[in-house]
Structures are given as structure tokens and as C-alpha cells.
TrEMBL record:
GO terms for molecular function: aldehyde-lyase activity; L-ribulose-phosphate 4-epimerase activity; metal ion binding. Its cofactor is Zn(2+). The keyword Nucleotide-binding does not apply. The keyword Metal-binding applies. It holds the Pfam family Aldolase_II. Residues 3-182 form the Class II aldolase/adducin N-terminal domain. Keywords: Metal-binding, Zinc. PANTHER family: FUCULOSE PHOSPHATE ALDOLASE, L-RIBULOSE-5-PHOSPHATE 4-EPIMERASE SGBE. GO terms for biological process: pentose catabolic process. This is L-ribulose-5-phosphate 4-epimerase. Its EC number is 5.1.3.4. It catalyses: L-ribulose 5-phosphate = D-xylulose 5-phosphate. Belongs to the aldolase class II family. AraD/FucA subfamily. It comes from Streptosporangium roseum (strain ATCC 12428 / DSM 43021 / JCM 3005 / KCTC 9067 / NCIMB 10171 / NRRL 2505 / NI 9100).
């Protein structure tokens, strides 16, 4: 899991989702009440599997030479309250955070959004770092939406997945659709997709699309 989480941080850089050190990936350790997360303030270029930090589900450091990411409490809260989640990602990716700054959900106006998110990408509450408020906001919103991504108001993106890779994919797709819907808005009002069609697209993508062995 250290190797997996370390390698996935390179995807945040490759997909232009992060500036400086502001973004992190975590992954639940299979069969343990533990997760692996990025160390705080370490450059992406300097990340190695050994530098990754292991925490318990309260966010306490269990193993590692560095202190854990400052977002560790939010990741830990998600793992405690959403047992089906095995990966969490946080970014301040540009276009998605622009929607978050307005507190505006991204409307479901693209078939790719219906596929991945099953509807709009919702907005979570404004919350300060330092306690469980961010985690509570993430869980409250994502428990009642199909979307694996939430835009935390005035802040940025949190995504979840059944693996760390799935959570990274959701973060990449979230930024992609945030950009496209933003551009669409510049020349007019994007056309909504009827709910029945969103449901059909979501069901097909989640259950039929792709290689069965990779689902
Ligand atoms: Zn943040």
C-alpha cells in the first residue's frame, strides 16, 4: 500500500491537479484498521514508499519518520464512517475549486458526468481544518449522493473510491468535467440531461462498461 499510494501521487502531478505540496492520496491497508497517507509538506519529487506514513483510523501516527499530512483527520473520519471506502484523495485542482469557491454544484450536463458521478457533483459545507468538521461534511454529503466527489465550499475537492486508484480517477474526472462545464457556461447555458437518461448512463457505466476483470 505504501508503494501504491506513493505512485498515485505522481498521477496528481501528471494530471495537473496540484500546486506545490497541496494535495494528497491515502489508501486503507487491507484487513487492518490502518491507512497509508502522504507525509506533510514533502515535495512530490521526494516521495518514496518508505516516506509514506501509516496512521490508525483516529489519524494517529503508527509508523513513519515524518508527520502525516495536515488533512489526515479528514481522511481518517471518512475511513471510520464509510467502511466501503478504501481510497481518499484531496486536491485544490483549479476548475473544480473555482466551483467550490462559488459554492456551486457542477450540474450533470455531460454523459461522462452521468457515467462517473451519476448526477451533479455536490457541494459540502465550509469547514476549517483542525478538527472533524471537514470529515463530517464530506461524509454527510457523499452518503446521500452517487458522486464519489464533493466540492468543499471555499476549499477544494475530496474524492473517495473502493481503491486509492479509483479515488484518483474520480479526482481527475472531477477536474475534467469542472473545466468543460465552465467553458460551456461561457457561451450560454449548458443543456440538462433528463434524470432517466442519467440513471441509464450511470447504470451501464458502473455495471457493464470496461473489462470485467478490472472492475
Ligand atoms: Zn485542502
Amino acid at each position: 500500500m505504501r508503494e501504491t499510494v506513493c505512485a498515485l501521487h505522481r498521477e496528481l502531478v501528471r494530471n495537473n491537479l496540484v500546486a506545490w505540496t497541496a494535495g494528497n492520496v491515502s489508501g486503507r491497508v487491507p484487513g487492518e484498521d490502518l491507512f497509508v497517507i502522504k507525509p506533510s509538506g514533502v515535495s512530490y519529487d521526494d516521495l518514496t514508499p518508505e516516506a509514506m506514513v501509516v496512521c490508525d483510523l483516529e489519524g494517529n501516527l503508527v509508523e513513519g519518520a515524518f508527520s502525516p499530512s495536515s488533512d489526515t483527520a479528514a481522511h481518517a473520519y471518512v475511513y471510520r464512517h464509510m467502511p466501503e471506502v478504501n481510497g481518499v484523495v484531496h486536491t485544490h485542482s483549479t476548475y473544480a475549486s473555482a466551483w467550490a469557491a462559488r459554492g456551486e454544484p457542477i450540474p450533470c450536463v455531460l454523459t461522462a458526468m452521468a457515467d462517473e458521478f451519476g448526477g451533479e457533483i455536490p457541494v459540502g459545507p465550509f469547514a476549517l481544518i483542525g478538527n472533524d468538521d471537514i470529515g463530517k461534511g464530506i461524509v454527510a454529503v457523499l452518503e446521500s449522493h452517487r458522486s464519489p466527489a464533493v466540492l468543499m465550499r471555499n476549499h477544494g475537492v475530496f474524492t473517495i473510491g473502493d481503491s486509492p486508484k479509483a479515488a484518483v480517477k474520480a479526482a481527475v474526472m472531477c477536474e475534467d468535467v469542472a473545466r468543460t462545464v465552465h467553458l460551456s457556461r461561457q457561451l450560454g447555458e449548458p443543456l440538462p440531461i433528463p434524470q432517466g437518461d442519467i440513471d441509464r448512463l450511470y447504470d451501464r457505466y458502473q455495471n457493464v462498461y470496461g473489462q470485467r476483470s478490472q472492475r
